[in-house]
Amino acid sequence: MEMRFEGVWLPFAEAVIVRCMERRSIASRRQQRACLRLSKGRLSPHRALAVHYNAMTTSAEGSHHPDLSVTFAGIELKNPIIAASGTFGYGVEFEDVVHLDKLGGFVVKGLSREPMIGNPPPRLWETAAGMLNAIGLQNIGAAAFLEEKLPKLRQMKNIVVLANIFGYTREDYERTIEILNEGEGIAAYELNVSCPNTSEGGLQFGSDPRSLDEVVTTAKRVSRRPLIVKLSPNVTSIAQMAHIAQEAGADAISLINTFVAMAIDADTRKPRIANVTAGLSGPAIKPIALRMVYDAAHAVNIPVIGMGGISTASDVAEFILAGASAVQIGTASYWDPCATEKIVDELHGWCENRGVGRLADLVGGMILE
Ligand SMILES: Cc1cc2nc3c(=O)[nH]c(=O)nc-3n(C[C@H](O)[C@H](O)[C@H](O)COP(=O)(O)O)c2cc1C
Questions:
Q1: CB 122 within 8 A of CB 131
Q2: Ligand 1 centre and the CA of 141: distance in Å?
Q3: Is the CB of 325 under 6 A from ligand 1?
Q4: Distance, CA of 256 to CA of 322 (rounded, Å)
Q5: How far apart are CA 168 and CA 116, in angstroms?
Q6: Which residue has its alpha carbon closest to ligand 1 atom 2?
Q7: 164 lines ligand 1 (CB under 6 A)
Q8: pLDDT tens-digit map of 136-195
Q9: Strand, coil or helix: what is 106?
Q10: pLDDT tens digit string along 238-290?
């Protein structure tokens, strides 16, 4: 067993032991004793790891399966993998592709008070390690979602549905939430604040502290469900915006939405996207997203849901170590529609191979020394 943790995994595994034991959340007395002896140099890391690993794999339930469950804003998920808004339709479209009940949850396409047809094509463009999109928040509208999609979702067992909401005025957000409040089977609202505030000169709600405060306060007042505020990365200080969202009543924050970006066809000299500017997502943004999740997690005491370029279980672990309680997968579903489900399986293996018994114990567990 010592061999198994030699080399690259050993430092990580040691870190896991120390962290778990420090928190005492899952530590048995043997683990705690081993931790003490390890810290005094009386036990080798290899031996401490063996104690820890044995304790984890012969836990009270006798289960060898890692516990991937997470909780945020009063919502319990069987695992931290959530399909991101705009990349998973209304969930029903993925029913034949993904076992929806294997996911932690999914966020439906952004909903508005009225249906929207979106932007003209071309609306998608592949970039180096990323994707540009300017779909224009095309959707069927909140009322049609309740009538046409939610009843189908309600027939499915063991799934968690989150509704993403957007608007161009505070009243839009308010009205959309009021409509959705009438439906059953939505676990929480995710407020997309990366939209121009048309009554305040068109600056994004999520890029202006005052607009952000007002829209979150309004949404919280009318919401009958937990409110997750999805932050825009197009800001100077993500920590400041995260804090504003928290103070205005957010039960959790999610981040990041896409970066405003563009591409030009140098031969035709025309923009690649009809809207000219578009949102950049995918692996290209992952390191920046990770830094923003880390900064935001240190600025608030509400849970953080991380996203931006995640495509592997080890990406998930990075976001969790940076402070995310759960994660969302977006663009990866474009090149592999089964990506969300595959990452759940991969995450089981990732935890098993490293002796991580309870994934939630890794939240914010990055080691700095
Ligand atoms: C085609 C497309 C449509 C999107 N639509 C929405 C949306 O309706 N509401 C929203 O909040 N975010 C939307 N997003 C942003 C994603 O949910 C996610 O925040 C972003 O893409 C970063 O994650 P990723 O790199 O894993 O895709 C969309 C992204 C893409 C690629």
A1: no
A2: 18
A3: no
A4: 14
A5: 12
A6: 86
A7: yes
A8: 999 999 999 999 999 999 999 999 999 999 999 999 999 999 999 999 999 999 999 999
A9: strand
A10: 999 999 999 999 999 999 999 999 999 999 999 999 999 999 999 999 999 99
- Give the per-residue pLDDT at 85: 98
Q: How far is the CA of 279 from the centre of ligand 1 (A)?
A: 8
Q: Could you tell me the CA-to-CA distances from 336 to 96, 125, 157, 342, 343 in Å, in that order?
A: 14, 17, 24, 9, 11
Burial class (CB in 10 A: 0-12, 13-18, 19+), 156: middle
pLDDT tens, residue by residue, 188-238: 999 999 998 888 888 899 999 999 999 999 999 999 999 999 999 999 999
Beta strands 304-307 and 326-329 are parallel
Which residues are catalytically annotated?
A: 195
pLDDT at 57: 45
Residue nearest atom 14 in ligand 1 by C-alpha distance: 86
| Residue 139, ligand 1, Cβ within 6 A | no
Q: How would you classify residue 251: left for phi > 0, otherwise alpha for psi between -120 and 50, otherwise beta?
A: alpha
Test site for ligand 1: of 111, 257, 293, most ligand atoms within 8 A of the Cβ: 257
Contact by Cβ (8 Å): 212, 248: yes
Three-state secondary structure call for residue 292: helix
Q: How many helices (H) and strands (E) does the chain have?
A: 12, 16
Q: How many C-beta neighbours within 10 Å does residue 74 have? A: 12
